[in-house]
Structures are given as structure tokens and as C-alpha cells.
Specification:
The complex is a heterodimer of chains A (373) and B (351). By secondary structure, chain A is an alpha/beta fold. Chain A has 16 helices and eleven strands. Chain A folds into two domains: 312 residues, HypD, alpha/beta domain 2 (Rossmann fold, 3-Layer(aba) Sandwich), CATH 3.40.50; 57 residues, no CATH class. In chain A, the strands form two sheets. Chain A has a six-stranded mixed β-sheet with strand order 4-3-5-6-11-10, with helices on both faces. A five-stranded parallel β-sheet of chain A has the order 2-1-7-8-9. In chain A, helix 6 packs parallel to helix 7. Chain B has a seven-stranded mixed β-sheet. A five-stranded mixed β-sheet of chain B has the order 1-2-7-5-6, with helices on one face. The chains are: A alpha/beta (373), B alpha+beta (351). At the A-B interface, helix 1, helix 2, helix 5, helix 8 and strand 11 of A face helix 1, helix 8 and strand 14 of B.
């Protein structure tokens, strides 16, 4: 298939892997931010082609994984109401809240629908004026413009039965948090190509300079990832710490300014709790006051703080790249996609699910006790 | 923002099982297998059921019969390449064919929803008749029920079928041996993506048509051609991946396939890329895998390719050892990974 097969060519992949092998003179740890990249790495076995001294760790870029439990609980509560049609992207339905997931609400008779675009939700709202139609707006900067557009359009149409439960998160503050953590071992980043297609990469330049860390904007096909790694390793080996763009076929330095304007019109930056990580300042998006009427938390009441439940799930350490999924003692035994202990085991983009599906025979390469603080 | 952030590595204890039936329990993945293995099979346990084949093999007065049943619920009722009627006939014919039987007779039961246009029913019945004629089976008994409007999805059909087994082969996962070849009868994913394209209003340069077709003729050609068929399985819900995993687990073997050898049509790959689906897990209604001894593989491939329904057939892998029981795949870039069964249905991804 054109524009796909070129980026999955076995010969070229091996060529890149050999080139990386020649470049590497000492151990390096690189984090890919995006869950889509994690999936590519594990599905195609990109990491198995790399020299042993190069460690890839998997970042927090899975929207399903980092959506806080309070908001899942709120989604479950809203979706269970009889006059509500609750719309969501597909993979949010299986994420466990404190007691229930959205699939269970659906099985009990709740009207929970999978949509591909928030604009589909507007159509549903027009067709069901007597129902409250709620969209679960999750994701990074990638999904934010379309969600902003849906809200702006709802306002223009005065669509009073539409609202959004917003749990948007932003990448740069999460990278800042990882780099500032005392546990950090990440020396270079592959930035998420699709996030940068929207936002550009100027905002990563101060991060690279302040923390002396190379950041390579990277795509999602196996060769994209390999080339991104090669560029990152070249910087590390030569002591550079710059922002470079591997994904030039989609990403410009300034990004998509129309999309950015739309986001800025509708959303404002807010503090946000990340599941498994904790609250990160200025790391999320919420609706501006002018669009507050479309905020599901205003319409249905704010999400209540979830009661803290102790668990053996170490997803916080996995999402920060401190642990690899298979180093968690519960991995593939007490924690599986059917019975997840944490959200990274749920989504196809979640690092634990990717390891479970493709890697679970590998022995852990270090005992957990050595890594777990 | 240079202050270190306090990390709180906690996660909630999730629900450990579901008290209600979810749609995922019908998705062909792990949840469906749990339902069958933990709830249904223990209730009825007997030696015939315990074989867990697509059809039960019965000894009746010296004759060996294959017997199977299946229910059909599909939305939309009509789709490119077929409709619920063609599925209801071919699906049951194929389950019989997977034991190497010659399908003979089917039953057909209809649950009709109040308000279904009679013209719609007539179109479906005509399709069933055409499909039955093409598969050389007769529909010889049936039943009809009507439910209140809103209690059904237009029409549900259940068919059962019997066929005669005339060969002496043991076609079952237990017969699979190390070094056996794995053949696939055609390209993957047409049925599932045809349905998805209609449901989601996706349009491509060429319309994706369901692969819905009767497979008994292909299987008969293999057996009459002298191929030592060790195991057969048609690929339905859960796709190629689930079928191979079922065989690997039931036969206690490791099945290794090469991704590059698995044919997937351009338009199906395109649709899968857009929706974030893996063609290995997408439903088919006219494809099967066949395990044969290595020595028979090339001849089996020639036989399959000489049949109109097997033109795209290929040898996709091999059985490499007795344990552990799992399926592995050599990816396009040459690395090896596990192919696992999905939990439930494939869900479209966020981005």
C-alpha cells in the first residue's frame, strides 16, 4: 500500500538498525512519548533490532491510560442516567473506574455509543433533542482541535442538549515532570509526531535547552521510529541537545496554526491529574468561561475525588519509564487485559497491553526490587 | 516550571469479572472463550462436546455424521457481497466442511421483529435459497417466531446442519504435528471491513465486498486430491489470529507465521489503517486455514489455487515445536512476536 509499505521495508529497517549499532558507544535510555509509537515498537519488534546498550522506555502518551479515575467515575455516573446518550471513542469503554467501566453501564441498559469524531455527537444531539448528549473529550493535543470545533459549532447552533466531559492533557508539561523527577533516567525523547503536527515543536526547544536533552519529533511507522532513534542517538553521542524533526512529511515548526487558534478560543490551560502519575500543573485543557454551558461537569456536577485504593499496580512507574511493563510483579499473572489492574493494560496503546499481546514470554531483564524505589 | 512533581503510583483495584453479558462476550476473543469454557461447556459436558470442533462428529448406525448450529445477527442486514441469508447458509455449511464432511441438510429458524417488511424477508429467503443451491444443500425444516418491535434487530436466523463424513482422516487440532505446513485459503478481512465500511459510511475507490462463500467444495478437492489434511478451521469472528490460537492451544503446538506471507487486499489494509484495526483479527466468512504435513503442502496449495475460491491461497507458516502452545509471527521488518487473542472486539482507537 502506497505511503505505508515504504515505511515498513525490512531491508531499510535492518540498514537503519546497523547504522544505529555503529553509532552507539555507550548505554543510552530513550523514551518514546506516544502510545502509538510504543505499539509500533512492540508490534514490529523494532527494539529487538537495536543494540543491547540502547534502552527504549515507554512514556505516558496513552490518553486512555492517563485519564484520571475521577473522570471515569463521572463518565460512568453520567452515562447511567436514563435521559443521557453518552458518546466516547471506543477504547475508553473498557477502562475501569472505581467500581465500573462504561461497557458495564452499556450492558445494564445505558445508552453508550462509540463515535469516531466529536462531530458525530453533534448529529446525535440534533436527532435526539429530548436527550442530554455527552461526549467524553479525552486525549492529547491531537484530538483537542476537533473537540474544540465541536464545542464551537454547538455554541453557534445553540445546541443546548450537548455537553462535553473534558479530560484533555498536554505533552510538554508531562515531559517536564518526567525530567524533573528524581527517578528520571530518560536521556533523549522521541516526541509524538501527531501532537506536533498540531502544535509544532517550538515549545519543546526550551525543554531541550534547559534539561540538556535531545528531542526528535518522530512518526509512527517502524522506519519513522528507527530513524527517530538514529537521530536521537547521533545527538547523544555528539553531546548535542536540540529539537529535530524526523516527521517532516507531517510536521512544521509552527504546527497547524488554524487548529491552535481553535483550541485557544475554546480551551484554557488548567492543572490536571494524570492517572498513575499525579497532578501536573498547567498540564491539561478545560473549557473557557464563554463555553462553560457545554461543560458536562457544570451540567451534571463536578467529578468527586476518588477514594484512594491501594493496589499492587505499578503503572505510575511504567508511565514514567522507570519500569518496563514485564518487570511489574503482577504483569500477565494477576494483571491481564481481561482483568486489568491498571489502565495501561487496557488500551491497545497502553504499554502493558502492548507487552502482554506481543512479549509476555520474555523474562524480566532485572528484578523489580532493584528498580522499584 | 522546575519544581519536582510528586508522583503517586497508585491504581484502583478493578472489577475482576462481569456480572452481566457484555457485547465483548460475543466478540470471538478471550471473554467469549471464558464464557464458553467456564459457564456453558461444564453444564453439558460429554465426550462429543469435549472435542470442541466446529461441528460435532457423531457415529449413527455405522455412518459418521457431522452436526452443527449457528445463529446469525448482523447489522446491516444487506451488505456488499451478501446478506444475513447468505451468511446463515454458508456459515453452517462451512462449519460442517471444517470436519471434512459433505454438507447435506440444513434447518432454518427465524426470529422476526414486528414491523419487518415482508419484502425484506423475501429477499433474505431468496438469498438463502441461492446459497443453498450453490452449496448443494437443502433446507428441510425450520421455525418462525415474531417478537415485539424493539426486541429484535429486524431478523435473527439460526441454522443447523448435518453432513456425511466419507473420509477416514482425523481432522482435529490433536492431529497437528511439528513441521506441518499452515495454508490459508485466501486474503483476509473482507467480510469484517465490508460491514464496518457500511456501518461507518466509509467510502473507498473500490467497494469492499464480503468474502462470504461456501467452502465445502474446496475442502472436498483437498481430500479427494489425497492431501493428508490434519486440521481445518474457518476464520470467522476473531479472524486468523483467534483461529490459529485456538488450534495451537487445543493441539498443544506452537504455530509460527510470516506476516509478509499473509495476503490482505489493498482496500482492506487501507480501511484497517484508518480505523486502527489489525487484519489478523478481522472477521471473514469464506476463508479457512488448513494444516497438512510438509510433504503435502505444495500439492495442497496447487489444489486450492485451482479452485475459484482459493486463487489467493498461500502457505503462511509452519508448526515449529510441541510447546509452548502459542502463535508467533515474524513481522515485516524481521522481528518475532507473539500473536495473542483479543479480549473482546477490536475497538476503534482514539488517535
Amino acid at each position: 500500500m502506497k505511503f505505508v509499505d515504504e515505511y515498513r521495508d525490512a531491508e531499510v529497517a535492518r540498514g537503519y538498525a546497523r547504522a544505529i549499532g555503529r553509532q552507539v558507544t555507550r548505554p543510552w535510555t530513550i523514551m518514546e512519548i506516544c502510545g502509538g509509537q510504543t505499539h509500533t515498537i512492540v508490534k514490529y519488534g523494532v527494539d529487538t533490532l537495536l543494540p543491547e546498550s540502547l534502552t527504549l522506555v515507554h512514556g505516558p502518551g496513552c490518553p486512555v491510560c492517563v485519564t484520571p479515575i475521577e473522570l471515569i467515575d463521572k463518565a460512568v455516573e453520567i452515562a447511567a442516567q436514563p435521559d443521557v446518550i453518552f458518546c466516547s471513542f471506543g477504547d475508553m469503554l473498557r477502562v475501569p473506574g472505581t467500581t465500573d467501566d462504561l461497557l458495564t453501564v452499556k450492558a445494564r441498559g445505558g445508552d453508550v455509543r462509540i463515535v469516531y469524531s466529536p462531530l458525530d455527537t453533534l448529529r446525535i444531539a440534533r436527532e435526539h433533542p429530548a436527550k442530554q448528549v455527552v461526549f467524553f473529550a479525552v486525549g492529547f493535543e491531537t484530538t483537542a482541535p476537533a473537540n474544540a470545533m465541536a464545542v464551537a459549532q454547538a455554541k453557534r447552533e445553540a445546541l443546548s442538549n450537548f455537553s462535553m466531559l473534558v479530560s484533555h492533557v498536554l505533552v510538554p508539561p508531562a515531559m517536564e515532570a518526567i525530567l524533573s523527577s528524581p527517578q528520571n533516567r530518560v536521556q533523549g525523547f522521541l516526541a509524538a509526531g501527531h501532537v506536533c503536527a498540531v502544535m509544532g515543536y517550538q515549545e519543546y526547544e526550551p525543554l531541550a535547552a534547559r534539561h540538556r536533552v535531545p528531542i526528535v519529533v518522530t512518526g509512527f511507522e517502524p522506519l519513522d521510529v528507527l530513524q527517530g532513534i538514529a537521530m536521537c542517538v547521533a545527538q547523544l553521542e555528539t553531546g548535542r541537545a536540540e529539537v529535530e524533526n524526523q516527521y517532516a512529511r507531517s510536521v512544521r515548526r509552527e504546527g497547524n496554526t488554524t487548529a491552535q487558534q481553535l483550541m485557544a478560543d475554546v480551551f484554557r490551560v488548567v492543572p490536571r491529574k494524570w492517572r498513575g502519575v499525579g497532578e501536573i500543573p498547567q498540564s491539561g485543557l478545560g473549557l473557557r468561561e464563554a463555553y462553560a454551558d457545554f461543560d458536562a461537569e457544570r451540567r451534571f456536577g463536578p467529578a468527586a475525588a476518588a477514594t484512594h485504593v491501594d493496589s499492587e499496580c505499578l503503572s505510575g512507574l511504567v508511565l514514567q519509564g522507570v519500569l518496563k511493563p514485564h518487570q511489574c510483579p503482577a504483569f500477565a499473572t494477576r494483571c491481564t487485559p481481561e482483568r486489568p489492574l491498571g489502565a495501561p493494560m487496557v488500551s491497545s496503546e497502553g504499554a502493558c497491553a502492548a507487552y502482554y499481546r506481543y512479549r509476555r514470554l520474555q523474562p524480566a531483564d532485572a528484578p523489580v526490587s532493584e528498580r522499584h524505589p | 516550571m522546575t519544581e519536582p512533581v510528586e508522583f503517586n503510583a497508585s491504581c484502583p483495584i478493578p472489577r475482576s469479572n462481569y456480572a452481566q453479558i457484555l457485547l465483548a462476550h460475543g466478540g470471538g476473543g478471550r471473554l467469549m472463550h471464558q464464557l464458553i469454557e467456564d459457564i456453558i461447556v461444564p453444564t453439558f459436558r460429554n465426550p462429543v462436546l469435549d472435542v470442541r470442533h466446529d461441528s460435532a462428529v457423531l457415529d449413527v448406525g455405522g455412518a459418521r455424521l457431522a452436526f452443527t448450529t449457528d445463529s446469525y445477527v448482523v447489522r446491516p442486514l444487506f451488505f456488499p457481497g451478501g446478506d444475513i441469508g447468505t451468511l446463515a447458509v454458508n456459515g453452517t455449511v462451512n462449519d460442517l466442511a471444517m470436519s471434512g464432511a459433505k454438507p447435506l441438510y440444513l434447518s432454518a429458524s427465524f426470529v422476526l421483529e414486528e414491523g419487518l417488511p415482508v419484502e425484506t424477508l423475501q429477499r433474505i429467503l431468496a438469498s438463502m435459497r441461492r446459497a443453498a443451491d450453490a452449496a448443494e444443500v437443502q433446507i428441510v425444516t425450520g421455525d418462525t417466531k415474531v417478537v415485539d418491535r424493539g426486541k429484535g434487530d429486524g431478523i435473527f436466523i439460526t441454522t443447523a446442519g448435518v453432513g456425511r463424513i466419507e473420509h477416514a482422516l482425523a481432522i482435529t487440532p490433536a492431529s497437528v504435528r511439528p513441521r506441518d505446513a499452515v495454508l490459508l485459503s485466501g486474503d483476509l478481512g473482507r467480510h469484517g471491513m465490508a460491514i464496518m465500511a457500511v456501518r461507518e459510511g466509509l467510502e473507498f475507490e473500490t467497494t469492499i465486498e464480503s468474502d462470504c462463500a461456501p467452502l465445502a467444495g474446496l475442502v472436498a478437492d483437498l481430500i479427494s486430491g489425497g492431501i493428508q489434511v490434519r486440521c481445518l478451521r474457518d476464520l470467522t469472528r476473531g479472524g486468523l489470529a483467534s483461529a490459529l490460537i485456538e488450534i495451537a492451544e487445543a493441539g498443544g503446538v506452537q504455530v509460527h507465521i510470516r506476516e509478509a506471507a499473509v495476503p490482505v487486499a489493498e482496500e482492506v489494509r487501507g480501511a484497517c489503517e484508518i480505523l486502527g484495526f489489525d487484519p489478523l483479527y478481522v472477521a471473514n466468512e469464506g476463508r479457512f486455514v488448513c494444516f497438512t504435513p510438509e510433504a503435502d503442502a505444495e500439492q495442497a496449495l496447487r489444489i486450492l489455487r485451482s479452485h475459484p475460491l482459493g486463487k489467493e491461497a498461500s502457505i503462511i507458516g509452519t508448526v515449529i515445536q510441541k510447546a509452548p502452545a502459542l502463535v508467533t509471527l515474524e513481522s515485516r521488518i524481521g522481528a518475532t512476536r507473539i500473536v495473542d487473542m483479543l479480549s473482546g472486539e477490536q475497538l476503534p482507537r482514539i488517535c
